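Usage

Read records sequentially. Each one opens with the input sequence:
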Amino acid sequence: MTQIGLILASASGVRRKLLTDAGLRFEAVDSLVDEDAVKAGFANSDQNPEDATDALALALAEAKALAVSALHEDALIIGADQILSCQGRRYDKPKSMAEARKNLTEFRGHPHILHSGLVLARKAKVIWRHSARATLTMRDFSDAFLDHYLAEVGERVMKSVGCYQLEGPGVQLFEKIEGDYFSILGLPMLPLLAELRREGVIGS
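and closes with the structure output:
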């Protein structure tokens, strides 16, 4: 039912799978946005940390959508991003197994928030924005469990900002999860699908 002309401005395999599984026809194009440059603009925000992180996730999603929209003006572009905050600090995807271990040790026994930003753009203009939060509390797992988890998951641990995939062994890290499952995976599907229906991209 989906018309051609929908582009996901992302190289994320998870986001591609979510859209594919939902029955959407689309292209995926890496935006090649310099995320560090966008983040630098939020280093000294006057907003409270959680609101500033929401705004950063939206800014990253917008930058990706607009970068791809500039090259595909007639298409509808989906831009999405996700930032993790824990105890007032923002985290990026770990660049090594050692960094993943350090991050998981810091997350252990504490709640962290996943901030998702979602944007639609057309003709190099943003036409819709959405933000979502999910709060996930890791249990106070043992060092032995952490060793076992990292050995089992391996380098996949570096593919997500939280060092886990809920659809896999990562679910064993948690004692409480509050929030929309799709938002946790980095793409709030229900509001996105509702907006795509309003835009006439999928059937209503």
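Summary fields computed downstream for this record:
- The first strand starts at residue 6 and ends at 8.
- Strands lie at 6-8, 27-28, 76-86, 89-91, 111-122, 125-138, 174-178.
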